[in-house]
Design goal:
The complex is a heterodimer. In chain A, about 40% of the residues lie in helices and about 40% in strands. By secondary structure, chain A is an alpha+beta fold. Chain A has one domain: Alpha-Beta Plaits (2-Layer Sandwich), CATH 3.30.70. Chain A has a 4-stranded antiparallel sheet with strand order 2-3-1-4, sandwiched between helices. In chain B, the strands form 2 sheets. In chain B, strands 1, 2, 3, 4, 5, 6, 7, 8, 9, 10, 11 and 14 form a 12-stranded mixed sheet that branches. In chain B, strands 12-13 form a two-stranded antiparallel sheet. The longest helix of chain B has 30 residues, at about 235-265. Classes of the chains: A alpha+beta, B alpha/beta.
């Protein structure tokens, strides 16, 4: 299933590498990625594909922990919620 | 493909503007639990709640994780218990309230509604037994909510029931005197009650509903307030348009959650309720929206017009976003559950008369209002009659949830905790309504034409 991963927080070296390797180790494929840095504030948005049957709660807890350790807010949300809210 | 600013906007709404799903409420019919033996009925009620709602909380939590949207309450609404209890001749229906409480707790639900009676035209013996049981039932349970419908536009107002509810509210307060009259926070007196309301304390599963159903209530006063910051000082056309667009987004999210919950639970989707439900958290207030429109404080002149616009625009935006809209669908103005309302009452800007006027243009009525503990039952009944009249004449739902907290006077505050918030005690008119309430009988149904 497709999902959106967002990473928001203070910029530092290696954020993308860390998040990507965590996703890869959970068999989550990255389809698209974009990032901006505004005044030291890092925002990364990724479109990802998780294998069917992925334990979403566990994966989001993993990302949460990773974010907690590094002072970032990392979220994974299914794509449908954004489509529902912004597309007719 | 969704663009980045849309993604970040959604996240900001959830993170900073308190956007959430206020409740996923599963309606369950208990009609087949009727039994002449009240103990057998109690067992059936407990068993049915446990089996039908077994997966409700787990499924809602899965949805929360996957979509990243909080679902604040997972609730259950059941058939009005007076209908279920009619097969027995029991005079005390407290055991059935306990069965509801135990069943709902067993499945992890946050509230269960439906300890209810519908008496707009008159009482069955079971209706009388249920109303007589309300104070004890609410005092001896934790998460059971009760409601009584005393009026409809087609039947008029049952003034005997209005009188009885005035007395019942007082008795419920006395039964939980140690707890600030907490039972009254779980007791609603309705006019034109709806069968598919997902919100507490007034939720019940009507007889026109299927065996089980999923109804969803969304929230989002903070999101609407934030959107209005962008149209400061602009004409009302733009205000209305901004609210409509925001309500559309909020409701689409509710619809998505409702559809998912319905699919995963194998339970039909009922409705999305388009109510704007505040919480006592800062930034989650309906009063803030009205003040953002230009009022110095909610309660001053203009508040009714502001609320009318808000209520209508929320519906117009929401109705296109959902397949089926129902429930109460209107802005709520509960005093204790809205930081802006609490502020206005505490500063003396908002009184019960202005609140009554506001209830004529919004959902749902005089809600979560603490009044002095020595308020007579007849005065409470008269307040119920006024609200019922507004509902009956305007063909809308109105309700009264007053808390005459024992021993409390104007200036005191009652703290209920959690979503129920805290309520400053508001003054009521001192002049009596006793002779008015003592008459009893029925106020006839109003004319449907000549509408002025």
């Amino acid at each position: 299933m497709r999902a959106i991963v967002t990473v928001i927080g203070k910029d530092r070296v290696g954020i993308i590498a860390d998040v990507c390797s965590l996703l890869a180790s959970n068999s989550v494929n990255i389809l698209d990625i974009s990032q901006t840095v505004m005044r030291d504030y890092f925002t990364m948005i990724m479109l990802v594909e998780a294998p069917e049957g992925t334990d979403f709660a566990a994966l989001s807890a993993l990302l949460d922990d990773e974010g907690e350790k590094t002072g970032l807010k990392i979220r994974i949300q299914r794509e449908e919620i954004f489509e529902a809210m912004h597309r007719i | 493909m969704i663009n980045n600013s849309e993604i970040l906007q959604t996240i900001e709404m959830i993170d900073q503007q308190h956007l959430d799903i206020r409740t996923v409420t599963m309606g369950i019919s208990l009609l087949d639990c009727a039994d002449p033996d009240i103990a057998a009925c109690r067992r059936k009620v407990y068993d049915k709640i446990c089996s039908r709602a077994e997966n409700l909380v787990r499924v809602c939590e899965d949805i929360e994780h996957e979509f990243g949207i909080p679902i604040v309450n997972k609730r259950i609404a059941v058939t009005p218990m007076a209908l279920v209890a009619a097969a027995s001749e029991a005079s005390d229906l407290t055991p059935l309230a306990k069965a509801m409480d135990e069943g709902a707790k067993a499945v992890g639900a946050s509230f269960i509604g439906g300890f209810s009676a519908l008496v707009s035209k008159g009482f069955t013996p079971a209706d009388r037994a249920l109303i007589a049981s309300i104070p004890e039932a609410l005092a001896s349970t934790d998460i059971v909510c009760s409601s009584v419908n005393v009026a409809t536009t087609r039947a008029g107002i049952n003034m005997d029931a209005v009188r009885l509810m005035g007395e019942t509210v007082k008795a419920a307060a006395e039964a939980t005197a140690d707890n600030g009259g907490m039972a009254c926070a779980k007791l609603v007196t309705f006019a034109n009650a709806v069968e598919d309301n997902p919100f507490m304390a007034g939720a019940f599963h009507g007889t026109g509903e299927p065996e089980t159903v999923i109804n969803v209530g969304v929230s989002g006063p903070g999101v609407v307030h934030n959107a209005l910051l962008a149209v400061k000082g602009r004409p009302f056309d733009e205000v209305a348009d901004t609210i409509k667009k925001t309500a559309f987004r909020i409701t689409r999210m509710g619809q998505l959650v409702a559809r998912e919950a319905s699919k995963r639970l194998g339970v039909p989707f009922g409705i999305v309720d388009l109510s704007l439900a505040p919480t006592a958290d800062i930034g989650d207030s309906v009063a803030d929206i009205l003040e953002e429109m230009g009022l110095e404080s909610v309660g001053t002149h203009g508040a009714t017009a502001a609320l009318a616009l808000l209520n209508d625009a929320v519906k117009k935006g929401g109705v296109m976003a959902s397949g089926h809209v129902g429930g109460l669908s209107g802005a709520f103005i509960p005093v204790s559950e809205d930081a802006g309302m609490i502020r206005a009452v505490a500063s003396g800007a908002l009184c019960i008369d202005q609140l009554t006027a506001m209830t004529s243009v919004c959902s749902v009525g005089l809600d979560m209002i603490a009044v002095p503990g020595d308020t007579p039952a007849a005065t409470i009944a008269a307040i119920i009659a006024d609200e019922a009249a507004i509902g009956v004449i305007n063909s809308k739902t109105t309700a009264v949830r007053l808390i005459p907290a024992p021993g409390k006077v104007v200036g005191d505050t009652i703290d209920f905790g959690g979503l129920l918030g805290s309520a400053p005690v508001m003054p009521v008119h001192k002049l009596g309504s006793d002779a008015f309430i003592a008459r009893g009988g029925r106020i006839p149904a109003p004319l449907g034409s000549l509408r002025n």
